[in-house]
Amino acid sequence: MDLEGWKKLVEGKRRDAVLDAVDRFGTPEVLVRAEDLSRVVEALRDDPETALDMLVDLVSVDYSRFPGWEGPRFGLIYHFKSTGRGHRLTLKVLLTEGKPEVGTLSSLYRNADWLEREAWDQMGIVFTGHPNLKRLLNHREFVGHPLRKDYPITRRQALSAPDPMLDQMETRLRSKGWT
Amino acid sequence: MRATPDLAALPVEDLDASGLDLGKERESGGLLLVNLGPSHPATHGTLRILCALSGETIEAAVAEMGYLHRGFEKDCETHSWQQAIPYTDRLNYVSAMMNNVGFCKAAERMLGVEVPERAVFLRVIVSELNRIIDHLVCAGANLVDLGALTNFWWAFLAREKVYDILERLCGARLTHTYTRIGGLARDAYPGFGAEVEAVLGDVERAVSDVEALILTNRIFLDRTRGVCPVSAADAVSWGWTGPTLRASGVARDLRKDEPYYHYDEFRFEIPVGTKGDTYDRIVLRFYEIRESAKIVRQALRRLPRGPVMTSDRRVALPPKEQTYGHIEGLMNHFKIIMHGIQPPPGELYDATEAANGELGFTLVSDGGKNPYRVKCRPPCFMNYAAFPDMIEGWMVADAVATLGSINVVAGELDR
């Protein structure tokens, strides 16, 4: 399917959701409104024609130092593919500095939980509805988000005590019927 | 495994604050919290899994990562495109060549640089040799976790011989930095082909020896067959790729699906498992080693003569006689050294089939000397994310047997 085809297909999932579509070295990328993302993704996953059953990767970008950039500060790039049909699609949302929020995909793809935690940890993107939006790569006493362009690469932060992880364990046990 | 920590020795205040009535369970012989890692022989790196045990059964598990996080992606933003290559060595350090190739292939696509055919074939050869090493390390170490130490020596002896070849190619055993954007750092040495042929024989012998020891071994079979299975649907939803996905019965391999570097012209099979259990995940790797050996032999036969570095002057240094003999050559040299390689502004995702699965790089260029953003997709990230779910309901010993089979490499996981 060509870029126009993909654009129309995504538009068909939700009216006014599509803002733009570009070709990224042969892979279609569709820019969608942040508030429509999770609905659009669910529809694309469940439609047998698209069948985007795998969330390949989630990439966060801080465009604040990009030459000539005038759009919102943050970009989230979602790479999907269909293991049955073999095609790929990239969806992108742009988020403003004041409200870097987007709905979680953790109920649609099992790996979205950790991928979103990483994007929160590294870039400070908030995923609304996420069951456990904790840092993933950095420690729990870490302040700030290192992949933001205004975070100096030389800043080091020490950890005083490891994470007992009992909050996660509690949730986990409760979900399995322990009281 | 001895369950040493008593609940009384754990931070009980926190337990009470959690509102869980663990104390009562303790009296009735209930839950015991045990940390598996971050420094445990079976984690082969720095991973931490907190398990709530009932007897030896894992009732619930939560995993932590990041102990080896060193800011690979941030580092790339402050270094030039070529300078990022040594950092990729340290991702999956068991198969560094494949990371070099993956990163350079992505950057070359962004630049529109053609790599000479000889370099392409050499990249295929070193990648497949690295896949062999990666699988030998994964399976060998996994079998040690199961108490089968001899296999480890046999697998590692073959691996050592492959490392000898890679060392002669680039001077380093583990961190190769063999590729450059536009080709390779240097050509193969005289006698390379014959040495590789000989080592492939050693590898195949080692695999046969290991298989002879384990495939009819009651202990191995009982400890791996049917243990911690993952369905095809779950594997896809977890974003699994590579051997773990194929063990669950999904025949997906980028070398076949989105072929690059003539993989569509080589004759090889994609082994697929049926049950997605620990047995499938281990044994599938032996089949893949044999297929990789087939690819290496075909690539050696077809290895063309010629340069291993492109003559594209945007990325390649000019020959020394031009640098020293002509002002244009000198300027070209200085431009590349001082201003670096400058891909046009744009965004790209490119992936290769690494030993662990789909190794992806998302690159964002602003047209400058350094990458604006680099995001690495480590295949074992998805494997490890699934691990707590996989081991719940199984015993501690099963968790140890399974952790090796999903081949989590902390250097790649934590970046």
Short description:
The complex is a heterodimer of chains A (179) and B (415). Chain A contains four helices and seven strands.
Low-confidence stretches of chain B: 1-19, 23-29
Q: What composes the largest sheet of chain B?
A: 3 strands, antiparallel
- As an assembly, this protein is heterodimer
Overall CATH architecture of the domain at 72-310 and 344-375 and 400-414 in chain B: Orthogonal Bundle
Count helical runs of chain A. Answer: 4
How is the biggest beta sheet of chain A arranged? 5 strands, mixed
The CATH topology of the domain at 72-310 and 344-375 and 400-414 in chain B: Cytochrome-c3 Hydrogenase, chain B
CATH superfamily of the domain at 72-310 and 344-375 and 400-414 in chain B: Cytochrome-c3 Hydrogenase, chain B
Q: Which shape of chain A, going by the Cα principal axes?
A: globular
Query: What is the helix fraction of residues of chain A, given as a range?
Result: 10-25%
The count of β-strands of chain A is: 7
Distance between the termini of chain B: 31 Å
- The Rg value of chain B, from CA coordinates, equals 23 Å
Order of helices and strands of chain B: HHEEEHHHHHEEHHHHHHHHEEEHHH
Counting helices, strands and paired strands, the structural category of chain B is mainly alpha
Uncertain runs of chain A are none
Mean pLDDT of chain B: 88
